[in-house]
Amino acid sequence: MVRAEKNAVYILVLALIVFGSTHTMKRSLHSESISLYRIPESIGPWEGRSLGTDLNLLKSAIGAQDIVFRTYKKGTEAVTLYVAYYKDIDSANEVHAPAVCYPGQGWTVSEDEIVLRELGAGKAGVNRLLIDKGDRQELVYCWWQTGDRVIPRNSANRLYQMIKGLTGRNPSTVWIRVSADTRKNVKSCENSVMRFSREMAPLIRNYFDRP
Amino acid sequence: MDDIRRLTLTTVLMSGLFCILYYSTFLELAGVWVRDEDYSHGFLVVPVSLYLIWRKREKIIGKPVEPSRLGFAFLSAWAFLYFLGIGAEISVFERVSLIVFIFGALLSTAGIRITRVVAFPVLFLIFMIPIPSEIYTMLTNPLKLFATTCSVNILQLFDIPVLQEGNLIQLPNYSMKVVVACSGIRSLISVIAMAFLMGYILFASNIQRFILLVFSVPVSLLGNVVRITLTGLLAYYLSSHLAEGYSHLVAGILTLALSFLCLLMGSVAIQWLEQKKMQYTSWFLR
Predict the structure, then answer these.
(1) Last residue of some domain: B77, B110, B127?
(2) Integer distance in angstroms from the first to the last C-alpha of chain B?
(3) Does residue A80 register a pLDDT over 60?
(4) Structural domain that includes position B48
(5) What DSSP element (H or E) covers B208?
(6) In this complex, which of B87, B138, B179 lies closest to A61 when CB atoms are compared?
(7) Phi/psi of residue A117, nearest 5 degrees
């Protein structure tokens, strides 16, 4: 019985040390302040207009702290931009992989790959999907922006966020999706999505550079 | 008697420490249990677990206290998980760490024999911890798609004009919300928890428990088919308002009750099969 009591004291000391050190680390992480993200309605030649979606409902459903959901047009070209800001790893856990989410909404994913694309500061890997529903077909580019990094896959982003969190850096992240109706012409649609992504991506990266 | 007093003192000390470590975790968990219908059973998990331990009190007192070094291996794992959970703010690690801590503390202070007696009630606590949404959806979305397709087919048998787009069901006067499309199958965790508990109480064999646990998946699927179909029927024949709010809640409770009934019938069937097996075995041996 004496050994049990001794062990109890060891546990008490160990637990209080772990408790104290982790909570001190957590406090230092929370001392970083972040201003909420806003994307301008005009991005180069592209003019944006918000979609009539209830953003508060969407925020509570997907656990995001801020959302931008707009259509951007340039002449006859049109793309849809969806950006969701997550302040920590837990809230970003609510995001499902597109390959899971789209079938849930009745889309069939016909292509799902990682491609290198120019995003304003060199090439980076983005997740490219081609999805179909009835007569409609959409091209989707999506990726995560965490700090100065562009990450195409959820799991890799989660790991990077974890490393940032453990090293006392800000683990907040942004999920970006640019999509467009192909109107049966994937190549011209791809050009529109690429051009828009190149103009828009630096704005989000700059956001992370600000205090 | 002196031993019991010391054991009580150690238990009180460890419980106090547990409260300091996990006070905020339980507050967060309670928030999830209130908000998320899939985890509303979370409020029952701790009382059930404590009751199961209370049932074993005679056995616990009867076992000798033999502290094990294995406990410190568990406590090292706990420290790592707790550090990741709190430090990197990954709540699933923080929550799972509470179970690892209990095992570590039990092994280090009471020993393997006592820990073995309370292992099930402690493991049962896992059901109060929400699975990360991304993983849960990935695992259960195909089941949900299947349940939706079954429900749509049943609704069509009633000559209801219904259109399915993935998990979205469009009726002439009602359409399910977009947010539902991305979530996993409803009540699966509650039904599995129920099967886990029933298996522990009703059966002595681990094989029988496992069969009941596997059986809980189609039971949950059936519950979802009934729930979606009922919602569709109510919305089409009576009012689209009935598909939401209070009636939605009642439909949820009814399907859970149906799942419980199915599990009970499954348990009876497993027991009956076991009896038959025994009869045939004795007949062959005769």
Answers:
(1) B127
(2) 52
(3) yes
(4) 2-127
(5) helix B206-233
(6) B179
(7) -135, 150
Q: Half-sphere exposure of residue A3, counting CA atoms within 13 Å on the CB side?
A: 11
Q: Which residue of A has its CA nearest to B164?
A: A106
ipTM of the complex: 0.72
Three-class DSSP category at A129: strand
pTM: 0.81
Q: Is the pLDDT of residue B178 over 50?
A: no
Percent of chain B with pLDDT over 90: 42
| A97 SS3 class | coil
pLDDT in tens, A122-148: 888 999 999 998 888 999 999 998 888
Q: What is the mean pLDDT of chain A?
A: 83
Residue closest to B181 by CA, chosen among B190, B163, B169: B169
According to DSSP, the residues that pair with A34 across neighbouring strands are: none
**For chain A, which residues make up each domain, given as ranges?**
1-31, 42-209
Domain boundary among B127, B162, B190: B127
Indicate if B71 and B184 belong to the same structural domain.
Answer: no
Cβ count within 10 A of residue B80? 14
pLDDT at A38: 67
Output phi, psi for A68, to 5 deg.
Answer: -120, 125
What is the edge-to-edge ordering of all strands in the sheet holding B168-171? B163-165, B168-171, B174-175
Which residue on chain A is closest to B102 by alpha carbon?
A11
Arithmetic mean of pLDDT, A32-54: 74
| A179: alpha, beta or left? (left if phi > 0; alpha if psi -120 to 50) | beta
Chain B residues with CB under 8 Å of A105 CB are: 165-168, 178, 181-182
Contacts of B224 (CB under 8 A, 6+ apart): B143, B144, B147, B151, B185, B186, B187, B255
In the numeric block, the tokens 């453990």 are attached to A166
Phi, psi of A145 (to 5 degrees): -115, 110
Instruction: Please judge whether B13 and A8 are an interchain contact, meaning their C-beta atoms are less than 8 angstroms apart.
Output: yes
Quote the pLDDT of residue A33.
Answer: 45
Alpha helices, H only, chain A: 2-30, 55-62, 89-92, 98-104, 154-166, 186-209
How far does A44 lie from chain B, in Å, by closest CA? 32
Residues in chain B with CB shorter than 8 Å from the CB of A102 are 166
Q: pLDDT tens for residues A94-103?
A: 777 787 788 8
